[in-house]
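This section describes the prediction task in plain terms. A model, or a person checking by hand, is given the sequence of a single protein chain and must write out its three-dimensional structure as a string of tokens. No templates, partner chains or ligands are provided. The sample shown here is typical of the held-out split.
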Amino acid sequence: MSTFIRRLKYYGIGFGLGVIIVFFFFGSRGCNWGPTARVKTSILERVLIVDSTNGVELKRRGVHPAELRKLIEDSDVDFSESKKEEALKVYSFHNDKFNFLVSMPYESFIAEVNILKHDANQFTTSSKGKGFFMHFPKDKDFLYVPENELLRDQMKDMGFKDNNALFEAIKRKGFIDFSSSNFNVRPKSEHSIGFIDNKKRNIKAKAIWMKERIEVLSFTFDTISPRK
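The expected answer:
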């Protein structure tokens, strides 16, 4: 019995040291297995967007686009008030300042934030107007254009030397055109991204979410006015 107790004691000491080491080197990242952490990670791996009305309201409340990520990280997820369907997940967030919803269409790279509506079961991702980019999970290599001769010729004509140059243009004044996007198509949602090329022309890019990156499928000229 004394041998068993001794082994149990050694096991407890080793386990305790392991936990301390995990916290020391990885901090909260070492405990990312909880449902709340998984939801937040899934959201923050995507592009945060808001429609024009919510963009104005966020500005009125003094929430800068760069602060939206931290707002999500610091808020609590109320799973009892969330909608967790496969086609569209809508999560209800609570904090000391205000409550808000975050919707994630199926196989989509966007997560839409809405602070004006609070009923997740009645909320769907916008289908009209524009969705303005508030946060990207990466600064580089998040957008990919396949090695296609037509797409590469179009990139050159638009004045973009590589994928990251195009990505920078989209980050500056790009937007999601909800009316031209299709979040119900399978196997992946289709997104319409509006932006301005280096020749000041309005362009649309059709894109999907592929291997945790935005993959562009095609470019077309468009008449939608750019974001001012």
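For orientation: Residues 43 and 111 are 6 Å apart (CA to CA).
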